[in-house]
Amino acid sequence: xxxxxxxxxxxxxxxxxxxxxxxxxxxxxxxxxxxxxxxxxxxxxxxxxxxxxxxxxxxxxxxxxxxxxxxxxxxxxxxxxxxxxxxxxxxxxxxxxxxxxxxxxxxxxxxxxxxxxxxxxxxxxxxxxxxxxxxxxxxxxxxxxxxxxxxxxxxxxxxxxxxxxxxxxxxxxxxxxxxxxxxxxxxxxxxxxxxxxxxxxxxxxxxxxxxxxxxxxxxxxxxxxxxxxxxxxxxxxxxxxxxxxxxxxxxxxxxxxxxxxxxxxxxxxxxxxxxxxxxxxxxxxxxxxxxxxxxxxxxx
Amino acid sequence: xxxxxxxxxxxxxxxxxxxxxxxxxxxxxxxxxxxxxxxxxxxxxxxxxxxxxxxxxxxxxxxxxxxxxxxxxxxxxxxxxxxxxxxxxxxxxxxxxxxxxxxxxxxxxxxxxxxxxxxxxxxxxxxxxxxxxxxxxxxxxxxxxxxxxxxxxxxxxxxxxxxxxxxxxxxxxxxxxxxxxxxxxxxxxxxxxxxxxxxxxxxxxxxxxxxxxxxxxxxxxxxxxxxxxxxxxxxxxxxxxxxxxxxxxxxxxxxxxxxxxxxxxxxxxxxxxxxxxxxxxxxxxxxxxxxxxxxxxxxxxxxxxxxxxxxxxxxxxxxxxxxxxxxxxxxxxxxxxxxxxxxxxxxxxxxxxxxxxxxxxxxxxxxxxxxxxxxxxxxxxxxxxxxxxxxxxxxxxxxxxxxxxxxxxxxxxxxxxxxxxxxxxxxxxxxxxxxxxxxxxxxxxxxxxxxxxxxxxxxxxxxxxxxxxxxxxxxxxxxxxxxx
Lengths: 300, 484
Description:
The structure holds two protein chains of two kinds.
Chain A: H1 2-46, E1 48-49, E2 56-57, H2 61-67, H3 70-101, H4 106-121, H5 124-134, H6 142-149, H7 161-173, H8 178-189, H9 193-201, H10 206-217, H11 219-234, H12 238-244, H13 255-264, H14 269-294
Antiparallel strand pairs in A: 1-2
Helix pairs in contact in A: 1-14, 2-14, 3-7, 3-8, 3-11, 4-8, 5-12, 11-14, 13-14
Chain B: H1 2-24, E1 52-58, H2 69-79, E2 83-89, H3 92-104, E3 111-115, H4 119-124, H5 137-141, H6 145-149, E4 152-153, E5 156-157, E6 159-172, H7 173-178, H8 183-189, H9 193-202, E7 205-206, E8 212-219, H10 225-235, H11 254-268, H12 281-289, E9 293-299, H13 303-315, E10 330-333, E11 346-354, H14 363-377, H15 379-388, H16 396-400, H17 411-422, H18 433-455, H19 461-476
Helix pairs in contact in B: 11-19, 18-19
């Protein structure tokens, strides 16, 4: 009798495990097909001179060509500059806006969250068209009217090397902080009130509470936003493609755009795949450094 | 109950997976119908013609071109009852990306619309079909020789041309006359760079504050359009192609430096805006219609109609007229000649190419593609899109075909177009694909970026010339470039 019961339990357990594996399989197959397989395939293509009707194996030639290509290093430098100028400022701005929103009542908070999240819902192409209009090079352009108010001559925002990168950075500064703000707001709501109460009893000022309570408690959130921000920024493509096309004189050519051009303008899929893998390795290395140096003190 | 729920969840998950997989499957709408495609069959051995489906990917070539697709498919099927023509419409924005994705996946349509300059790119991928063997002499004779050559490379005929358009410039009739320019004479006899420079400086108008309210000349040069600006001007600057007759790279000659100096000079004179490098195609047309420029580029024959339609809207107080626009009569003009060179117009020939996928197509299928391409590029179909684009058809059959609607035309512009078209030169068919590919790489990686910098006044003409020369030497060697 006892043995029969154990057998049934075992069967039930195995049966439950079976269902579990079946459910995992769905995600696993999707991951294998749409993530693992493309990565493996990209690696294989990076060793070939890809042609639709038959590719040829070229070993590490595509990697060697990439390393000796001045444009790749220029694009990498541009991407790094763009990342350094956008990611920290965007995180700081999102943090600041979240701090300004948090004292409001829930309903008002929701209104602000919706307003700040709205650009994320809009199509990137539509946003680019609006920004192209803002950066109209003639005197009638909005940005030129703003600088004209301060007595500055009208600028060729996207057409000059001096201002093209800044224009893309400005575009990033002023758009799409919605996700980061919502994440920061959720993290801020997770800080127990007792910490603020204890600080107030000790006579802490607003800035002291911010520095000694909020900033340390939000460190894991900041690390998360930093890592995802750097990954996103290194893969930036759309803004440069739509706004400047990488110009003038490659002043805004990012690695993502270079990969796109190699793949879809020159049909050099092998070189594009090699550059994609190198970009992935660079991103992984930076993420590792971020976790190593910034991920240490996140336990309280 | 719990078990039922699990089964249902798993069932839905499986459906989700199958949906994902089917979306990635190769049997999309773009693939030829495998049940009756000529790709499957061998040559026709019986007396009865084998059924076949021809697929085509086509953009909105003219205003009503895509609207006529159903009629075109029907008409083709009536002509060849054993054949089915299946046309997939694509927008101009999607066309190249859609085609390139299908080509690289090894399953392109049988026919696609491309500009003739893209042919070498597809030849290098080995995906084009030579139609020489399947096009009869009678069919070939229907096409004008100049246009026909644009779809040849070596001895192969990779498709058929649909139209030949001249990329020129165009002026506002009133402004040209105010500046004292004898535009009728220019239309017939052309002008040199010096004459042009003088004319556009007379076209500049300033307000009381000394601010320019009207430029003499504005050309779209933002991003890749700068390539058009340079190549259109280069044709009449003694640089008709990237390679000279002995296949030496020609943009290293002093003619190129002279052209670059002219390009910079027109901005420094104040005849062109200093922000030229950011002016795109839409902006410069807007500047033309709003009276902010006397001459604009690039110009197409159909711009006459666009300006006329806007004029009618202004007269009728129609709110859909371009904001702040004025009545402007478009006058077609040739580009100036530089360095004492002769006038060579930029002839843009677009048309249809024949493609193959991973499977070797049967002879019969290739023949059927030839029939379909000829059908699409001649007769009443070509007559109608040429008419809508204000172009003279390039096939005898189209010239003799009736059109659905007649559009009013400026007789002087018609004559000017005829003069420009008569000077169009056939495409070079002797340039090897590897040389052409290398030239395109220099164009994209050096010429276009440096030209943008030159227009933005960040480098001098000499610096740009040196950069292009250095890139050319790297690609073709000291012996592979023109030195003068």
